[in-house]
Design a protein that fits this description.
The protein is an all-alpha fold. The chain has two domains: 91 residues; 52 residues. 77% of the residues lie in helices and 0% in strands. Helix 2 packs antiparallel against helix 3 and helix 4 packs antiparallel against helix 5. It is rod-shaped. The relative contact order is 0.08.
């Protein structure tokens, strides 16, 4: 009987290790954030469950097995909840499960570009609502995309108004 329990606990420990390795492989190989979270969350829970069951069989019924069962139950419930929380924050942060995410250093550049494009759309939309000319709207969009800080209020003046303002600055009537 002890030999059978030793074999079963060994098989369960091996299955748990394999599940954790498959989850780690999924973390490295899958294309986007949500696929990676799914792979790691599922395989992490399965791996911990198999390893905990293997240790329970190996230990037999004692205080240690009760502690292992409590830890296993705790991990069985908290791992999917933590995975869901991370996925929800990523989704609210702007990641889309349908778009292909770039890999490596380009990921940061793509995220910055996406934020800049959203900001430019908002400012261009605000400029269009105020009735600014198309040239001014293009100028705002180009400044934002070039990384320069665009003025929040753009005023177009005629040459006569520009001369009048220059004269006021100099102190002439």
């Amino acid at each position: 009987m002890e030999l059978l329990l030793a074999w079963l606990s060994g098989i369960l420990l091996a299955l748990g290790t394999i599940a954790l390795l498959v989850g780690a492989l999924g973390l490295v190989r899958l294309p986007n954030l949500f696929s990676r979270i799914h792979a790691v969350g599922m395989m992490d829970t399965a791996g911990v469950a198999f390893i905990t069951l293997g240790m329970l069989l190996h230990e037999g019924f004692s205080l240690i097995s009760v502690k292992l069962a409590v830890v296993g139950i705790f991990l069985f419930f908290t791992s999917p909840i933590a995975t869901h929380a991370v996925a929800q924050v990523a989704y609210k942060g702007g990641f889309s499960p349908l778009e292909q995410q770039p890999v490596g250093k380009t990921k940061v550049k793509a995220a910055k570009r996406k934020v800049a494009q959203k900001a430019s759309r908002k400012k261009v939309g605000a400029a269009e609502k105020t009735g600014a000319k198309k040239a001014v709207v293009k100028k705002i969009a180009n400044k934002i995309l070039a990384g320069k800080k665009a003025a929040t209020k753009t005023v177009t003046r005629t040459p006569a108004e520009k001369q009048k303002k220059a004269a006021v600055k100099k102190g002439a009537p």
